[in-house]
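Support request from a user on the community tier.

User writes: "When I paste my structure tokens into the form, the page sometimes reloads and wipes my input. The last time it worked, I copied everything first. Here is what I submitted, just in case something in the input itself triggers the reload:"
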């Protein structure tokens, strides 16, 4: 919508050589040089006012279709030769047809100082939005969306489909259309034309993209994290780093995760529900980077989140460290606010509570049960109690530790029984 007020808002007044009322199709081949006039042009939030002597011509902003449509070299050279100005602006607008009924497209051409042409173009684009761009205005919302996704490096159909309502046919049609318009190649890489469109959208500050595009644009900054085209496997987790236009990804064993994180540089961490099931952990660093952990094992994600959560109980954070195999990471102690002595004191208390075994080599059954209740409670709140069992994904590491603990208890019981029998 074009801004409205009771009194028109004045934006600027500039001198141009101009010509108006030319059928748009004519400008593709020829412009009559005899019709140029020296004008004073005023811009308000309602119209373009052309002052030619005592005559005032007004073109309502609602009438304008496109701004800055390119002309052929031959026509552009004639404009520059006649007006003696290297810069000009073409404005296409709707007007009642001179023959027949309805509206037809006409063109206004303004030539003048480079800074004046640039200022007028910028103001008109701000008022009208990107729909007035001759290239972007002819693109469908889904074409702009896909182009912007490709520009961020998201080129896997499994990642992009959710943003197209899982409509495979729509996604394929959109991709084919962008190829026909020479915006992308067969490998989803942007051509120079496609890159120009994306740059215009970025430079626009996301104004007036339309609700469909604008809403999707707001998702792009985080959607890169859900690239499951190279998913985590059942053995290793996947970590992705991103800073501005650079990104890096790789697989990391659970026990080694901490070696790849600069904990002192992590400013905030947040849990993310994945598209199908399971959880991811998005970490924002103090230098503006983002780190994303993707795992088939949601217990790993939740435990790491618990360690990073500075409001979490200190002994629960220590329990999470033992669970992930981080108990010997001394730099992690500083992150949770403990020195070696403080860590030993808390471990002793946890042994007394029956959460850790006496040798501190493993978590007891009581500790594992506490872990399970804690993890399930946290994720239940996150998922708003909506079928946690289906959305959570696997708890593989916790399940393995439970089985190992049960096996150990059975072996201890058999050993104790054997010793009793040996005493008879």
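"...and here is what came back when it finally went through:"
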């Amino acid at each position: 919508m074009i801004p409205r007020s009771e009194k028109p808002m004045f934006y600027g007044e500039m001198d141009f050589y101009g010509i108006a009322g030319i059928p748009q199709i004519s400008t593709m081949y020829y412009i009559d040089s005899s019709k140029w006039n020296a004008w004073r042009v005023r811009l308000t939030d309602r119209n373009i006012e052309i002052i030619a002597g005592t005559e005032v011509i007004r073109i309502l902003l609602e009438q304008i279709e496109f701004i800055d449509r390119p002309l052929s070299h031959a026509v552009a050279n004639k404009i520059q030769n006649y007006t003696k100005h290297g810069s000009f602006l073409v404005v296409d607008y709707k007007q009642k047809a001179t023959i027949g009924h309805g509206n037809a497209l006409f063109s206004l051409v303004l030539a003048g100082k480079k800074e004046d042409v640039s200022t007028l173009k910028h103001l008109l684009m701000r008022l009208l939005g990107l729909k007035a761009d001759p290239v972007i205005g002819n693109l469908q919302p889904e074409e702009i969306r896909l182009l912007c996704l490709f520009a961020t490096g998201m080129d896997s159909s499994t990642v992009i489909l959710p943003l197209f309502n899982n409509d495979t046919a729509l996604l394929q049609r959109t991709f084919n259309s962008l190829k026909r318009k020479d915006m992308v190649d067969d490998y989803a890489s942007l051509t120079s034309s496609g890159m120009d469109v994306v740059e215009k959208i970025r430079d626009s500050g996301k104004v007036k993209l339309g609700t469909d595009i604008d809403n999707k644009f707001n998702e792009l900054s985080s959607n890169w994290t859900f690239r499951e085209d190279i998913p985590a496997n059942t053995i290793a987790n996947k970590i992705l780093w991103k800073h501005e236009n650079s990104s890096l990804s790789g697989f990391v064993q659970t026990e080694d995760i901490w070696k790849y994180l600069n904990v002192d540089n992590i400013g905030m961490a947040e849990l993310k529900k994945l598209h199908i099931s399971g959880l991811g952990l998005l970490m924002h660093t103090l230098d503006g980077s983002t780190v994303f952990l993707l795992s088939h094992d949601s217990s790993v994600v939740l435990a790491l989140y618990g360690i990073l959560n500075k409001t979490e109980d200190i002994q629960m954070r220590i329990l999470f460290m033992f669970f992930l195999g981080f108990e010997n990471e001394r730099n992690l102690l500083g992150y949770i606010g403990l020195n070696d002595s403080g860590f030993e004191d808390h471990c002793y208390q946890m042994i007394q509570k029956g959460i850790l075994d006496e040798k501190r080599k493993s978590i007891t059954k009581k500790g594992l049960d506490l872990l399970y209740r804690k993890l399930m409670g946290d994720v239940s709140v996150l998922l708003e109690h909506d079928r946690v069992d289906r959305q959570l994904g696997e708890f593989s590491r916790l399940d393995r530790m439970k089985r190992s603990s049960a096996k150990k208890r059975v072996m201890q019981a058999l050993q104790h029984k054997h010793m009793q029998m040996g005493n008879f």
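Agent notes: The reload is a front-end session timeout and is unrelated to the input. The chain is about 40% helix and 20% strand. The mean pLDDT is 78. Escalated to web team.
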